[in-house]
Amino acid sequence: MLDLKLVRENPDYYKAKIESKLDDPRKIDQILEADVRRRELIGEVESLKATRNAVTADIAAKKKNKENADHLIAEMKTVSDKIKDLDSELSDVETRINDLLLYTPNAPHDSVPKGSSAADNVEVRRWETGTFAGTFKPLDHIELGKRLGILDFERGAKISGSGFPVYVGKGAALERALINFFLDTHTTNHGYKEVFPPFVVNEESMRGTGQLPKFAEDMYTITADGLYLIPTAEVPITNLHRNETFKAEDLTVRYCGYSACFRREAGSYGKETKGFLRVHQFNKVELVKFANPEGSYAELESMVNDVENILKALKVPYRILLLCTGDLSFNAAKCYDVEVWSPAENKYLEASSCSNFQDFQARRANIRFKPDANSKPEFVHTLNGSGLATSRLMVSLLENNQNADGSVTIPEVLRPYTRFSTIEPA
């Protein structure tokens, strides 16, 4: 949620920022118009209440002196009715302002390149060691999964519908190995504290991280209980500290946590959907940070490096993209995508996004810190990143490590977890 005070002070800046995200800049005008009316109402109510308080004292004095105060009492009833009406209007206006802010995206950081689509994203760097170098045509992950007997998309569709994969045998072991390797690396080498969160959350949690109300149609909803299946562990982990205040010396707080992730993706029709390229359920280890605003962008760079360290250890070729304004998510002020190479698809696939939301989520979820003992609480900056999602990484891992005989070699760092070094055709 944007800071209304800052929007009021510099509306043209925020209009330009919202427009650069391909959203309607008129939302800023609507917010400010409602804010003007809100302040008018507050002034009217306060003036009437001051009048009522003064006249009430006068009425008490007249009654004490046994003087008639009926006309004043009648006047104050009219004033009280007017105050009640204005309070009701004020409540409606404040609700409108809040609703408008909830649907208004975060402003891109000034360092984000301006652009209208993914074509305008900027490649920052790439790491190509391990790029497929075989002399044979690589099979895609779907065919590999069938031949190795480790992935079953057909039975997943029979059980739940398309987009719900089944991992089998060594495929299941490899998936579990990836998750454990991510968690161990982030907790041991990168300074994160592991949490294992619930996979369902309430409406307030979804609102706190920005999924609601704007993206309600993309959520899996448990209507009878008012709960939602999480689209990412970012939601429960960030909400661990909803309505809480950190001490400045405790920041930065770093969490990592595994969860299954559930996404209806109602607006994804027409996009690539085969195999792991787009699924409704997948596994992910999430990285979440609560940072002092002064150091949050250094924490973003550090988070990206943490993700890169995982991919380098796996020897998976990847590249880093800085997203342009038009490709930024609703919540993000700045975001890097980490994409892994698929030789069969002959393109990079997104496996992680690392974002700084600044105080956008913290303002919605009321997460603060005290700079010092004598200061008023301020909002923290929240950051999150996939460290990593397994589905598209599995595509890259299988395809880049396939051999001419149809087997797949397991990266060395995963072998202590899998306890096997290759997967042979079934």
What does this structure look like?
The chain has helices at 4-9, 11-20, 26-64, 70-102, 141-148, 153-159, 170-188, 203-209, 234-238, 296-314, 360-365, 390-400, 415-418, and strands at 122-127, 151-152, 166-167, 193-194, 200-202, 220-222, 227-229, 245-247, 253-262, 281-291, 318-322, 334-342, 347-356, 368-370, 378-379, 381-389, 408-409, 422-423. The protein folds into two domains: 4-102, Helix Hairpins (Orthogonal Bundle), CATH 1.10.287; 118-423, BirA Bifunctional Protein, domain 2 (2-Layer Sandwich), CATH 3.30.930. Strands 1-11-12-13-16-10-9-4 form an eight-stranded mixed sheet. Strands 5-7-6 form a three-stranded antiparallel sheet. The mean pLDDT is 94. The relative contact order is 0.14. With 426 residues, it is an alpha+beta fold.
Q: Briefly, what is this?
A:
With about 425 residues, this protein is of the alpha+beta class. The chain is built from 13 helices and 18 strands.
Strand content: 15-25%
How many structural domains? 2
Output the radius of gyration: 27 Å
CATH topology of the largest domain: BirA Bifunctional Protein, domain 2
Q: Residue ranges: pLDDT <50 for 5 or more in a row? A: none
Q: Any idea what the CATH architecture of the largest domain is?
A: 2-Layer Sandwich
What is the helix tally?
13
Number of strands: 18
CATH superfamily of the largest domain: Bira Bifunctional Protein, Domain 2
The percentage helix is: 40-55%
Write the layout of secondary structure elements.
Elements: H1 4-9, H2 11-20, H3 26-64, H4 70-102, E1 122-127, H5 141-148, E2 151-152, H6 153-159, E3 166-167, H7 170-188, E4 193-194, E5 200-202, H8 203-209, E6 220-222, E7 227-229, H9 234-238, E8 245-247, E9 253-262, E10 281-291, H10 296-314, E11 318-322, E12 334-342, E13 347-356, H11 360-365, E14 368-370, E15 378-379, E16 381-389, H12 390-400, E17 408-409, H13 415-418, E18 422-423
Parallel strand pairs: 4-9, 8-14
Antiparallel strand pairs: 1-11, 2-3, 5-7, 6-7, 9-10, 10-16, 11-12, 12-13, 13-16, 14-15, 17-18
Helix pairs in contact: 2-3, 3-4
